[in-house]
Amino acid sequence: MSTSALLSALHVAGRQHVTASTIGARQATGSHVFRIEWYTQLREQVANGTAVNSGLFSVGGHDWRIQCYPNGDTEQTQGSVSLFLTQASHAKPGDVMASFKMSILDNSWKPSRTGVEEKGDRFMGDDWGRKKFMKLEDLDKEKHLEDDCLSVLCDVTVDLGLRTDDYTDEVPAAAELAKTPPPFHLHDLALASKDTVAEVRMNNIDADVCKALLQFTYIDSPPPELESAASMAERLLVAADRYELGKLKLVCEEALCKNIDTSSVTATLALAERHRCPVLREACMQFLSSTGNLNVLLASSERFEKLKTGCPSAVLELLEKKRLLHEQLKSASS
């Protein structure tokens, strides 16, 4: 049971002022794919000691770049690819505790060569990486350079340190009651006698969602507007995930699956990723498996950027499906 669910249960049981705190190690993890197009031509034009850089990506409140030296970063590494992770934010060197894994992907989007820094060292500058990550002679055109494009995947984990989170579920003061959604009353619940009225307040949940939660909990019936109102289904799914109501969460997933279109699929997929919704995620991926739907998404740079930021694993799957489709079309035409 989550801390928020525990506090709400204690509150409903009659405790008017309940607070809690938790402490634990916190981490932030993110991934970035750096694709270097026309790699063979670029390698011929770039001298030893010259780097090409990825765009900025953010993990754990810090900005990062992947730095690639196609012909090695020094004379001693000439003949190899050098790969580094560089900190691009304004934090001072040594302020960040992090680890990372760098991989060169093969043409099936799987790591072919991987370098790992798992010690959780403090970041001290531009020297995180491998000077001889991979020999140029080991870069295979058929395996690593389809369409002469080299793909580098970097997984970064930032240690956020120990963090204390405070929780409260107290009844609002009289002066605040007018600002909060009005409570609703439940009669004849298992937790109350027949002559008792239970007043329920849940922080950060509006009255409609709160009522739907309890309705489903006690009479196993979802609200009738769930099928027609995507906004209600989204809000109720978040609440069901928070209070670990798996059956209600699945009902919300199935309702949202019926409302997926080109304008909503990016936000819906991000929602599915955040709240671990396999049914909803699979429905979004099936929708994007259609070449027409995927092309609409790729044509919108804003939607595609949101997808890359919120669902990097989904981007890899979609690109892989597009590659396989391309191969099938080539085979059919030959």
How many DSSP E strands?
11
What is the first-to-last residue Cα distance? 58 Å
The Rg value, from CA coordinates, equals 26 Å
> Which structural category do the helix and sheet elements fall into?
alpha+beta
State the helicity in percent bands: 25-40%
Overall average residue pLDDT: 75
Q: Biggest β-sheet, characterized?
A: 5 strands, antiparallel
Fraction in beta strands: 25-35%
Q: What's the total helix number? A: 12
Order of helices and strands: HEHEEEEEEEHEHEEHHHHHHHH
Which of globular, elongated, flat, extended, rod-shaped describes the shape?
flat
Low-confidence spans: pLDDT under 50, at least 5 residues? 118-122, 170-198
Structure description:
This protein has helices at 3-12, 39-45, 141-144, 174-177, 207-219, 230-242, 246-257, 265-274, 278-288, 291-299, 301-310, 312-333, and strands at residues 19-37, 52-53, 57-59, 62-69, 80-87, 98-105, 111-117, 128-135, 149-168, 184-187, 197-200. The protein has 334 residues and is α+β, with helices and mostly antiparallel strands. The strands form three sheets. Strands 2, 3, 4, 5 and 8 form a five-stranded antiparallel beta sheet that branches. The protein has a four-stranded antiparallel beta sheet with strand order 1-9-6-7. A two-stranded antiparallel sheet has the order 10-11. Strand 3 and strand 4 (62-69) form a beta hairpin. The relative contact order is 0.11.
Briefly say what this structure is.
37% of the residues lie in helices and 27% in strands. With 334 residues, it is an alpha+beta fold.
